[in-house]
Design goal:
alpha+beta; two-stranded antiparallel sheet; globular
């Protein structure tokens, strides 16, 4: 799956959020940022992690993801 890295447009952000939502729904289970990042192809790991974190925050803010912390690592699930 490709993560849209066009940060300049709102459409690019919406597409990233939709891609992360679809991934979490399709595979289920608990997710970390690293697990999600491993499912997307992109050149810059740091930028990819930041974009996934932003998408997760948007989904959590909309009430579509639940989160919890275990041993200092944060997990999300749909």
């Amino acid at each position: 799956m490709k993560l849209n890295t066009d940060r300049a447009t709102e459409a690019g952000f919406k597409e990233r959020v939709a891609n992360v939502r679809n991934l979490f729904c399709a595979e289920g289970g608990e997710w970390t940022v690293d697990r999600a990042a491993s499912r997307f192809s992109s050149k810059s790991t740091k930028a990819k992690r930041q974009q996934i974190t932003q998408a997760i925050a948007a989904l959590e803010g909309a009430g579509l993801l639940l989160s919890h912390t275990n041993n200092g690592e944060q997990y999300w699930q749909h």
